[in-house]
Design brief:
The protein has 160 residues and is α+β, with helices and mostly antiparallel strands. The protein is 29% helix and 29% strand. It has a five-stranded antiparallel sheet with strand order 2-3-1-4-5, covered by helices on one side. Helix 2 (56-69) runs antiparallel to helix 4 (114-132). The longest helix is centred in the C-terminal third of the chain and has 19 residues, at 114-132. The two termini are 26 Å apart.
């Protein structure tokens, strides 16, 4: 198999869960990010903590962590993982009236945690949207991507 072949398909082209039983356990780390942009009213509610639904970023942090833990329930061919650490960081940009969500996921295991980091980011961003949609239904979520991954057979990778 070359690096260009997709591992979630068998020789007949049928989707399957990849067999990781022969892989070695290593420390795995992944970081992903994404951004949500909003109007001034929504941004000020987020920053001030005055949203009627409560602490937007606090709840988004918990949602992002929960999302990472439930990735295998949402993405059909992901292996259930025992995460050893999840951290969520918010980068506020007043000039752009936006929030960047950065998730770091870690485990010691036989498969990577990229999907868990991406799911955490997505869940955090969707939670921010849900909590502020009453004042800005036009918020835009985007640029969800992997920043880096460490560990495993393919080694380390960082976005260019």
């Amino acid at each position: 198999m070359t690096d260009q072949q997709l591992t979630h398909f068998d020789s007949q082209g049928q989707a399957h869960m990849v067999d990781i039983s022969e892989k070695k356990e290593t420390k795995r780390v992944a970081r992903a990010s994404g951004k949500i942009s909003m109007n001034e009213v929504a941004y000020q509610l987020l920053v001030s903590g005055q949203s009627k639904k409560g602490d937007v970023l606090g709840i988004a942090r918990i949602a992002a962590i929960q999302g990472s833990k439930h990735t295998s329930l949402l993405i059909p061919l992901c292996h259930p993982l025992s995460l050893t650490h999840v951290s969520i960081e918010f980068k506020l940009d007043e000039g752009q009236q936006s929030v960047e969500v950065v998730a770091t996921t870690e485990t010691t295991g036989k498969t990577g945690v990229e999907m868990e980091a991406l799911t955490a980011v997505s869940t955090g961003l969707l939670t921010i949207y849900d909590m502020l949609k009453a004042v800005d239904k036009g918020m835009q979520i985007g640029h969800i991507h992997l920043l880096e991954k460490k560990g495993g057979k393919s080694g380390d990778w960082r976005a260019g």
